[in-house]
Amino acid sequence: MASPVAIVTGASRGIGRHIALALARDGMDIVCAARSTRDAPSKLPGTIEETASEVEALGRRALAVPCDIRQEDQVAELVRRAAEE
């Protein structure tokens, strides 16, 4: 990702989703991270893929990365993937 990039945790719903969309409106590309994915949905509505689609609809690039921030190895993978893209 060549533009400024923000990693947003909790991006599947609520405040995290709103932060991701606000940053996208401000011209940032977004890495959406959370535990709720299409393959591992929560009982609550919303996934990182849905938020990523909304970011892309705003004309920004998005990357959805499953991540439980309580797990150090998953956080390391999140950062690696964000830097790689």
Characterization of this structure:
With 85 residues, the protein is an alpha/beta fold. It has a single domain (5-84), classed as Rossmann fold, CATH 3.40.50. The chain is globular and about 30 Å long. It has helices at 14-25, 48-57, 72-84; strands at residues 5-9, 29-34, 62-66. Strand 2 (29-34), helix 2 (48-57) and strand 3 form a beta-alpha-beta unit. Strands 1-2-3 form a three-stranded parallel beta sheet, sandwiched between helices. The longest helix is centred in the last third of the chain and has 13 residues, at 72-84. The model has no long low-confidence stretch (mean pLDDT 95). It contains three helices and three strands.
Task: Describe the structure in brief.
By secondary structure, this protein is an alpha/beta fold. It has helices at 14-25, 48-57, 72-84; strands spanning 5-9, 29-34, 62-66.
Based on the model shown, name its key terms.
3 helices; 3-stranded parallel β-sheet; 41% helix; Rossmann fold; alpha/beta; globular; 85 residues
Which helices and strands, and how do they pair?
Blueprint: E1 5-9, H1 14-25, E2 29-34, H2 48-57, E3 62-66, H3 72-84
Parallel strand pairs: 1-2, 2-3
Structural class: alpha/beta
Gyration radius from CA atoms, angstroms: 12 Å
Give the rounded overall mean pLDDT: 95
What level of helicity do the residues show? 40-55%
| Total number of domains | 1
Instruction: Give the SSE string.
Output: EHEHEH
Strand order of the largest sheet: 1-2-3
What's the total count of β strands? 3
Low-confidence spans: pLDDT under 50, at least 5 residues? none
C-alpha termini separation: 5 Å
Sheet with most strands: 3 strands, parallel
Query: Given the structure, what is the number of helices?
Result: 3
Percentage of residues in DSSP E strands: 15-25%
